[in-house]
C-alpha cells in the first residue's frame, strides 16, 4: 500500500485530494490547523490525522515521524493568503510577508528535507500546490503571489537536483473554497475543488515528468 502525506487537508483542495487518494487505496497522513475538521476527514478516509501548523518545526517533525520511511508522495498544499483584506504592496507589512513566506515557502521546503531520504529510496513524488498568482500581476495578490513564485522556483531547482523523485508544481485554478472567498473573490462562481483534485490525480497515477502543470490542462488532456 502506498502512503501519502497531505498538508492542509481539512478542507478545499487538500480534503478533495485526500478523498481521491483514499478511494485509490492509499494510506494517508493528513495535517491542518483545524483539529475538528481534520478529524472528520480522517474518519472519512481512514487517514492518520496530526493537527498543527506547518510553520511549527515540532509539528513538521511529528508529520515526518508519522510518515516514516515508507512515504511515496508528499503534497504541500497548506498555505496562507497573508493579511486579509489583501493589501497592495505599498502597504504590505514586512512582518506579514515574512509570515506568509514561512508558511508557503519555508515550511514546504523544510518538510521536503525531512522526508526526502525516504522519497529517494522509494522513487516517490512531491506535489507542491502553487497558483496563477505566481506568474500573473494581480493587484493585492503581491505577497501571496511572491511566496508561490518562490515555491515554484524551489520546485524547479529540486526537480533538477533530484532525478529519482518526481517533482510537480501545480496551479489548481480558481476553486470554490474558503480561501478564495477570504480573498474577496466570487468563490461561488468557481468550480468545486474536486475537479482540480481529479485533474491533479493524473500526475500521481500517470507519474508524469517533473514540471509545472495547470489542472485545467490536465483535465483537458486526452
What does it look like?
This protein has helices at 12-23, 35-45, 57-67, 94-122, 142-161, 178-182, 193-206, 215-220, and strands at residues 3-6, 27-30, 48-49, 73-76, 125-129, 166-171, 211-214. The chain has 222 residues and is an alpha/beta fold. The chain has one domain: NAD(P)-binding Rossmann-like Domain (Rossmann fold, 3-Layer(aba) Sandwich), CATH 3.40.50.720. A 7-stranded parallel β-sheet has the order 3-2-1-4-5-6-7, sandwiched between helices. Helix 1 (12-23) packs across helix 7 and helix 3 runs parallel beside helix 4. The mean pLDDT is 97.
CATH architecture label: 3-Layer(aba) Sandwich
- State the separation between the terminal residues, measured CA to CA: 28 Å
Instruction: Output the CATH topology.
Output: Rossmann fold
Low-confidence parts: none
**Shape category:** globular
Strand order of the largest sheet: 3-2-1-4-5-6-7
Tally of separate domains: 1
**Number of helix segments?**
8
Quickly give the structural class.
Answer: alpha/beta
Radius of gyration: 16 Å
GO molecular function, one term: oxidoreductase activity
Keywords: Oxidoreductase
InterPro entries: NAD(P)-bd_dom_sf, Sc_DH/Rdtase_CS, SDR_fam
Protein name: NAD(P)-dependent dehydrogenase (Short-subunit alcohol dehydrogenase family)
Features:
222 residues; Rossmann fold; 7-stranded parallel sheet; 49% helix; NAD(P)-dependent dehydrogenase (Short-subunit alcohol dehydrogenase family)
Write the layout of secondary structure elements.
Elements: E1 3-6, H1 12-23, E2 27-30, H2 35-45, E3 48-49, H3 57-67, E4 73-76, H4 94-122, E5 125-129, H5 142-161, E6 166-171, H6 178-182, H7 193-206, E7 211-214, H8 215-220
Amino acid at each position: 500500500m502506498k502512503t501519502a502525506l497531505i498538508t492542509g487537508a481539512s478542507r478545499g483542495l487538500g480534503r478533495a485530494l485526500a478523498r481521491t487518494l483514499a478511494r485509490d487505496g492509499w494510506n494517508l497522513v493528513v495535517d491542518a490547523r483545524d483539529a475538528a475538521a481534520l478529524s472528520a476527514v480522517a474518519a472519512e478516509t481512514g487517514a492518520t490525522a496530526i493537527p498543527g501548523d506547518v510553520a511549527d518545526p515540532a509539528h513538521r517533525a511529528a508529520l515526518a515521524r508519522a510518515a516514516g520511511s515508507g512515504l511515496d508522495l508528499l503534497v504541500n498544499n497548506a498555505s496562507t493568503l497573508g493579511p486579509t483584506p489583501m493589501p497592495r504592496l505599498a502597504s504590505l507589512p514586512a512582518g506579514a510577508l515574512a509570515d506568509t513566506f514561512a508558511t508557503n515557502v519555508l515550511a514546504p521546503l523544510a518538510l521536503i528535507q525531512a522526508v526526502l531520504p525516504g522519497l529517494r529510496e522509494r522513487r516517490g513524488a512531491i506535489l507542491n500546490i502553487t497558483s496563477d498568482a505566481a506568474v500573473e500581476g494581480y493587484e493585492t495578490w503581491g505577497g501571496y503571489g511572491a511566496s508561490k513564485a518562490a515555491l515554484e522556483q524551489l520546485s524547479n531547482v529540486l526537480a533538477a537536483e533530484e532525478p529519482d523523485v518526481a517533482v510537480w508544481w501545480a496551479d489548481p485554478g480558481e476553486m470554490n473554497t474558503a480561501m478564495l472567498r477570504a480573498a474577496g473573490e466570487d468563490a461561488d462562481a468557481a468550480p468545486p475543488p474536486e475537479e482540480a483534485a481529479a485533474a491533479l490525480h493524473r500526475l500521481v497515477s500517470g507519474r508524469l515528468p517533473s514540471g509545472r502543470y495547470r489542472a485545467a490542462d490536465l483535465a483537458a488532456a486526452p
